[in-house]
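This follows on from our talk about sequence and fold. Can you supply me with one protein entry, sequence and fold together? Could you add the entry underneath, on a fresh line?
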Amino acid sequence: QVQLTESGGGLVQAGGSLKLSCEASGGTFGMAIWGWFRQAPGNEREFVATISRGGGSTHYADSVKGRFTISRDNAKSTVYLQMHGLKPEDTAVYYCAGTNGGSNWLMTMTTRDAYDYWGRGTQVTVSS
């Protein structure tokens, strides 16, 4: 049973930075594709970023491209989301997700049903 634990969320002013972490246990971290999603109140959960099994490829939602960076440390079984230039519209609960299936063609890894494992989320609030 794969368990994911997110951390690093909090309250930050617009223009600030946060780094989210997601530690995985109970599975083969290095064999999985990992992603981040977010859900704001009243909105659907939306794709943010994803990273390939080897970490050599990444893909981002247009809304975060150039501001957010996803990375992974297989030795620590942890995936990260570094966020810079935060905006009030980035306010949401951020979820880590993973799958041992899927495709390294990351354009196909932008939907919720592409992932099998989910964390409980960490709140990010950006004040204006």
Remarks:
- The longest strand covers residues 18-25.
